[in-house]
Design a protein that fits this description.
With 392 residues, the chain is an alpha/beta fold. It is built from 13 helices and 11 strands. It is elongated and about 75 Å long.
């Protein structure tokens, strides 16, 4: 059985109820757990989130898990017992599903008017596509965000699921939840937070929309200052087939970059976009003359804003990240440490990924929900089967 997780962090004492799902909901709950909240995840018997061993699903770290079958006659009552004692609830079902299961906002607020009810979806709670299935790539596609990324002569580049699920989804859900929690504590009134990935991903591009309106951004890929169109803001291949990233935007950084590349004669090309092709070719040729590690040594003590492009396995060994403890090892898994950092309420990885259903006894005691220990509640041994879970 996993040890209890409440403890360190600025959210210590905050109770979060997470109705198990996949993608941005679990990540948002992990962030709250990393910040010290007591997160209880309600898992479904026979199903988990990712198609991996739950022991490696670090989005479930610092949490506890109970098993509840919401389709069982008394399943909703168990969840409502937990919701009555929670400060925050997170669900990621399609609109209307939580209501049909008997654990929607009205049901929960009838038991706990102070509850912050966080809803995580791709399309949002209303609109023509609200009931349609989808994934990160479709959500960022319609916002214009996906179309901004990639080579101008090729298809848009897929940024994993970082821009939609986690940046436009999880982080906006957490911001909304914390704002609503502040309001609830001030007024005694909870509310629903409708976090849609299409809204968050669009909001992320606020500066770009301003530049577009001002005529400072072209509505096409690879033609702008920050999308790879600028030769001193992009990536270049090195002699060993690896890459360096260049971000020498300001004049002083640009001049230092050119000096270290021995290309000082191209300094006037910075503001002359008719010479950007010439500049790009010269920089590309120079980078191809040395390996990534050699170029890293050239630039590491400079303000030229140049860095090596590292892989996921290489990143934890970067000297700066290693010195800061940006990554850590816990339970044999190398993983990002909690972020951000706090001077008075430090955070920590307290426990590894919660095993589905392993914490019913502890949660029943700590949250005073004896119904979780009824004889017919599924136990962890029953929670087997296909690890892939269909979207609600």
């Amino acid at each position: 059985m996993t040890a209890g997780t409440p403890g360190q962090g600025p959210l210590a004492g905050v109770r979060v109820l997470e109705l198990a799902g996949i993608g941005p909901g679990p990540f948002a709950a992990m962030l709250l757990a990393d910040l010290g909240a007591d997160v209880v995840r309600v898992d479904r018997p026979g199903g988990a989130g990712l198609a991996i061993d739950p022991a490696y699903d670090i989005t479930n770290r610092n949490k506890r898990s109970v098993l509840v079958d919401l389709k069982a006659p008394d399943g909703p009552a168990r969840v409502l017992d937990l919701a009555e004692r929670a400060d925050i609830l997170i669900e990621g079902y399609r609109p209307g599903v939580a209501e049909r299961l008997g654990v929607g906002p009205d049901d929960c607020h009838a038991r706990n008017p102070r509850l912050v009810y966080g809803r995580m979806t791709g399309w949002g709670q209303e609109g023509p596509l609200a009931q349609r299935a989808g994934h990160d790539i479709a959500y960022i596609a319609v916002t214009g965000t996906l179309g901004m990324i990639g080579d101008p002569d090729g298809p848009p580049a897929v940024p994993a699921n970082l821009v939609g699920d986690y940046a436009g989804g999880s982080l906006y859900l957490v911001v909304g939840i914390l704002a609503a929690l502040h309001h609830a504590r001030a007024t005694g009134t909870g509310q629903v937070v409708d976090a849609a990935i299409v809204d968050g991903a669009s909001h992320l591009a606020a500066m770009i929309h301003g530049m577009l309106a001002a005529g400072g951004w072209q509505d096409r890929r690879g033609a702008n200052l920050l999308d790879g169109g600028c030769p001193y803001y992009g990536t270049y291949e090195t002699a060993d087939g690896k890459y360096m990233a260049v971000g020498a935007l300001e004049r002083q950084f640009y001049e230092e970059f050119l000096a270290l590349m021995d290309l000082d004669d191209l300094a006037p090309a910075r503001k002359d976009w008719t010479r950007w092709g010439e500049l790009r070719e010269a920089v590309a040729a120079r980078f191809k003359s040395r390996t990534r590690d050699e170029w890293t040594a050239v630039f590491e003590a400079s303000d030229a804003c140049v860095a090596p492009v590292l892989s996921l396995r290489e990143a934890p060994r970067h000297p700066h990240l290693a010195a800061r403890g940006t990554f850590t090892d816990h339970g044999g898994i190398t993983q990002p440490a909690p972020a951000p950092r706090f001077s008075a309420t430090p955070t920590a990885i307290r426990t590894g990924p919660a095993h589905p259903g392993a914490d019913a006894d502890d949660v029943a005691r700590d949250w005073d929900v004896p119904r979780l220990l009824d004889a017919d509640v599924p136990r962890p041994a029953d929670a087997r089967g296909d690890q892939r879970e269909p979207l609600p």
